[in-house]
Design brief:
Layout lengths: L10 E5 L7 H7 L9 E2 L13 E6 L3 E2 L12 H13 L4 E7 L3
Parallel strand pairs: 1-5
Antiparallel strand pairs: 2-3, 3-4, 3-5
């Protein structure tokens, strides 16, 4: 059954604990405030742990709902390229990306 107004979107899960060791990823992850953040269980300013996964939308490589901006850092360029390549290889142009921190 599909509820009225419901949109279905693929989910791309990327297990990348090595990203959670990178200072530039941590800068992006920790730059959010309680009223301005992607979906995550991570608390800014704390050390990432197995529940520090982050979720955001992806739209054809043009951007994310959490790419950064003038007042905060974006997702590091090389990581964004990896995300774009994964989605392109899977022939997915719009999805939710789940970046997991599982060893």
């Amino acid at each position: 059954m599909k509820l009225e107004g419901t949109n279905y979107m693929p989910l791309v899960r990327i297990n990348a604990p090595e990203w959670y060791q990178r200072p530039d990823w941590l800068l992006w992850l920790n730059s959010h405030t309680p009223d301005n953040h992607p979906a995550t269980w991570h608390f800014p300013g704390t050390k990432p742990h197995e529940l520090s996964d982050v979720f955001f939308t992806f739209c054809d490589g043009e951007g994310s709902d959490w790419p950064g901006g003038k007042d905060k850092p974006g997702i590091p360029d090389d990581i964004w390229k990896i995300i774009c390549d994964i989605c392109e290889d899977a022939k997915i142009d719009e999805c939710v990306v789940w970046v997991a921190n599982i060893e």
